[in-house]
Recover the amino acids of this structure.
């Protein structure tokens, strides 16, 4: 009757030992697995750091190899994958970089760095229009560190692209947030003002340059930018003063000298400047006709269009008109302007080489055509 309890206790003891052994083996297995993972992580980190160093030292192909090896160990490491795409792009492997980034973005479309890298890939492939959308996703995407700084740098990169593409409306749209949060660095603010000029927004550019000059009146680059902004708005007298300031601060500045000369010539040529007497307006309109006619004279040929010959004849007739009395000068003022404008437009179409767009003559006629 006492055998069964002893046998039962023996079974339980054996079962307990088996459980302890299993637990021990499991613990050992977990320890070994953890150790293996730790060693694998250390190896992946070593390979990744070697790849980063190679990329920094100008060897992107070696960087691709090392980072790829790191990824075979840690396949889902997004930092490694982003760095791989960067190395592939630097190595000229745009298609591979695009594939790597497409995988990253398929799992997280808001990844700021991945979107920025994809934009760079598309620019490299000559697909600037497609790159713009990825730049926007980078600007408003998620970043692990320095969120505002990375977003600002992405926007600046997009701005540089749009400036190169001469996409004025899109450029202005990106510049406005920059103006609202203008950097304190004077060099960056001067660049912002220059970009606003390129985006055909001279009033905003003038505001930026005036703000700079309030803090740094002797900044010759800001004075030049202000002069160009004033000139673009037709305020030639203010522009003349700004260009004079540029040459006082930097006597050898070629742009300042050029624009001051153009400004002075234009102030002597433009017949629409306020305050001119009727006779002076007429005289200047006739000067416009004469200058355009002289410019066209070099390209009038036997095979020139009848339209060019017709307007050239009208110019010749106008130039033979005797001097006007003040009370009659306005009679031919508009007619002279029309002749100058029409002849200039035909000249631009038929004559080679094209006339300079920043000459005083071209600028006056451009203004009249508005």
């Amino acid at each position: 009757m006492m055998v069964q309890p002893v046998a039962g206790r023996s079974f339980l003891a054996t079962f307990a030992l088996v459980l302890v052994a299993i637990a021990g083996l499991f613990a050992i297995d977990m320890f070994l697995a953890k150790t293996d993972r730790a060693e694998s992580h250390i190896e992946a980190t070593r390979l990744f750091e070697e790849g980063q160093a190679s990329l920094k030292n100008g060897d992107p192909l070696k960087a691709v190899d090392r980072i790829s090896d790191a990824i075979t160990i840690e396949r889902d490491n997004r930092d490694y994958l982003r760095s791989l795409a960067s190395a592939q792009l630097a190595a000229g492997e745009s298609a591979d970089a695009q594939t790597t980034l497409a995988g990253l973005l398929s799992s997280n479309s808001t990844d700021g760095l991945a979107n920025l890298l994809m934009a760079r890939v598309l620019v490299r492939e000559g697909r600037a229009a497609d790159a713009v959308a990825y730049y926007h996703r980078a600007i408003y995407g998620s970043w692990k560190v320095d969120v505002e700084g990375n977003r600002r740098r992405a926007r600046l990169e997009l701005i540089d692209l749009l400036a190169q593409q001469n996409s004025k409306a899109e450029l202005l749209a990106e510049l406005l947030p920059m103006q609202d949060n203008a950097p304190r660095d004077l060099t960056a603010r001067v660049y912002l003002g220059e970009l606003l000029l390129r985006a055909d927004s001279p009033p905003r550019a003038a505001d930026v340059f005036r703000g700079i000059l309030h803090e740094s009146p002797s900044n010759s680059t800001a004075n030049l930018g202000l002069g160009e902004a004033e000139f673009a708005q037709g305020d030639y007298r203010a522009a003349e003063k700004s260009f004079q300031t540029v040459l006082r601060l930097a006597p050898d500045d070629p742009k300042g000298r050029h624009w001051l000369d153009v400004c002075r010539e234009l102030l002597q040529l433009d017949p629409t400047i306020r305050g001119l007497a009727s006779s002076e307006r007429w005289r200047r309109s006739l000067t416009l006709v004469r200058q355009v006619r002289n410019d066209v004279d070099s390209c009038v040929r036997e095979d020139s269009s009848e339209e060019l010959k017709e307007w050239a004849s009208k110019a010749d007739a106008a130039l033979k008109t005797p001097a006007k009395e003040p009370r009659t000068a306005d009679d031919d003022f508009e007619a002279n302007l029309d002749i100058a404008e029409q002849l200039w437009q035909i000249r631009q179409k038929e004559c080679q080489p094209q006339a300079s767009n920043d000459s005083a003559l071209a600028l006056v006629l451009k203004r009249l055509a508005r």
